[in-house]
Amino acid sequence: MNDLTHDKFLGGRLKLWQPRRGYRAGVDPVLLAATVPDDARTVLDLGCGVGAAGLCLAARVPGLTVTGLELQPLYADLARRNAEETGLAFEIVQGDLTRMPRELRDRQFDHVIANPPYFRRDQSVPARDEAREHAMGEAAPLADWVRAAARRVRDRGQVTMIQRVERLPELLALFDRFLGSVQLLPLIPRPGRDCQLVIVRGRKGGKAAFRLHAGVVMHEAPRHDSDREDYSPAIRAVLRDATALPFP
């Protein structure tokens, strides 16, 4: 496929191929990867796309073993290409999380991350591009994503997902059902604005009380009034300097 772009991530530390049209990785998978603790040794990225989250994580944490599961063959092939060209260790398995491939069925990981589709298709309009629709429109229910993650994470291991705030009640109920010790990190677009995205973490077998952390502000200015970049210092450090975004 020739209709690709070669885009910079982590301030140019990574360059990743992705389709010019269809689903394109932005800041969300980078932020998701930044929340994984440095002491995780094995990580599974469910629905890895072109590998943005997994490769950003591998670039930040030396010696980490990262595996990605991707449903769409085009994106799985691009993830393999990106891993090879960046020289980072990133194993790609092409398959469906609702019918877990044999290569992953008997494995468990320290941490599982996922950026599940944001939109329920009984409440939204499908995307015209088929690949984008697969990535953004929910085919497998959110419950399948959380169940698959909980099965693949080791005992006392953690699962972290990023999702739109509209899906938060459903996601919290699922994390409480399949995991425990649930924590919520709101992502605030600008000062004084309503939260739009959240990062949710749970621990397999965890018993701790629910924790709602102070929100992380994405942009410093109250509104977008110019073409200059106005990320907050914490977010700029993640996106440009490959630093971590730890849960408090």
UniProtKB/TrEMBL annotation:
Keywords assigned: Methyltransferase, S-adenosyl-L-methionine, Transferase
GO terms, biological process: methylation
Residue ranges constituting the Methyltransferase small domain according to the UniProt record: 31-122
InterPro entries: DNA_methylase_N6_adenine_CS, SAM-dependent_MTases_sf, Small_mtfrase_dom, tRNA_Adenine-N(6)_MTase
Alphabetized CDD domains for the sequence: AdoMet_MTases
Gene Ontology terms, MF aspect: N-methyltransferase activity; nucleic acid binding; S-adenosylmethionine-dependent methyltransferase activity
Taxonomic superkingdom: Bacteria
Protein name, as recorded: tRNA1(Val) A37 N6-methylase TrmN6
